[in-house]
Specification:
This protein has 357 residues and is α/β, with parallel strands linked by helices. The chain is 41% helix and 25% strand. It has four domains: 84 residues, Chorismate mutase (Chorismate Mutase Domain, subunit A); 94 residues, D-Maltodextrin-Binding Protein, domain 2; 77 residues, Periplasmic binding protein-like II (D-Maltodextrin-Binding Protein, domain 2), CATH 3.40.190; 87 residues, Alpha-Beta Plaits (2-Layer Sandwich), CATH 3.30.70. The chain is built from twelve helices and 15 strands. The strands form three sheets. Strands 1, 2, 3, 4, 5 and 11 form a six-stranded mixed beta sheet that branches. It has a five-stranded mixed beta sheet with strand order 8-7-9-6-10. The longest helix is centred in the N-terminal third of the chain and has 36 residues.
Length: 357
Amino acid sequence: MTLEDIRREIDAIDDQLLTLLNERMQWVHKVGELKRATKTVIYRPEREKSILDRLNKQNKGMLTPEAIEAIYLEIFAAARNIELPERIAYLGPEGSFTHQAAESRFGAMSEYMTLPTIKSVFEAVDTGRAKFGVIPIENNQEGIVYETVDLLNETSINIAAELKIPVHFALATECENPSKIKRIYSKDIAFRQCRGFLNKYFEQTQPEEIQVESTSKAAKLASEDPESAAICSVIAARLFSLPILFDNIEDNSNNRTRFFILAKDFVNQPSENDKTTLIARLPDTDKPGILAGFLQDFKRANINLTKIESRPYKGSEDFNFWFFIELEGYYKDENVQKVFKKHRSYIKWLGSYVKNA
């Protein structure tokens, strides 16, 4: 076959795909009508997870699970916009890793609100200005984001889903030769996490390192300064049309950040692989055995706790604490309910959602 023959075959397959996608969207529209009639939420993470699991099990071709997920998350996002367009708030700026996380879940077609603080994202969801919010909860190198934890305690917002994305940094610049770079812009944490690369590639030239408030701002500044570079995300470099000279320059390739998708009055249906997040406001935490006794109840119920963080009561003169806890299981599971009922006056349920590996 000639190249033109192969291209004609590909075009024919694309035509079939378009027809099938439009047919899928017609059924999606019917689902949307039913959901609006019953006032059911459009975004169902557990349903999307079950579709991806089913497709991966029956996949016999060249597509990897990651490729299938990337393709179908965009299809899901397009479908949700047909069912009911929804506004997504995220911690900015535009081009940040939180922006990348939001787009990875809700697709490029959704309407986005870029907000300056984690608190403003909570407020947007709480007031209904946004249907969902995307904020960071922890990084596996830097630890927990305490502002997120504190606001989950202080507000009535639920966790609809979690997602984890790898944190990869790029060196983006108009310079074709690293030796021509005189200034590098980035956020302090990005400089720390790329120190090995910087020491190796710029040991001789020693360009000035200029700290800015975000990697997106770094990309913007580098796009305006032809003798500079930015350590930033790929999405930030793309946003400001800044060429990438080196990709994946972080010292630790296992660097990952976990994000929460926030919603108001949101309850997922159970899947076969759930997590539950809660706040425990135990009494008399200054007395011996209070926390130990509470944790023993989970052990006796055969519940695996995956995280516990203590936080101080704000405004209290005493050294008393409440606890942010994550566990494996759905909140209506029999063993989980047994512990919840025993400590119902001390527990605030934040959400049960599909565990993101």
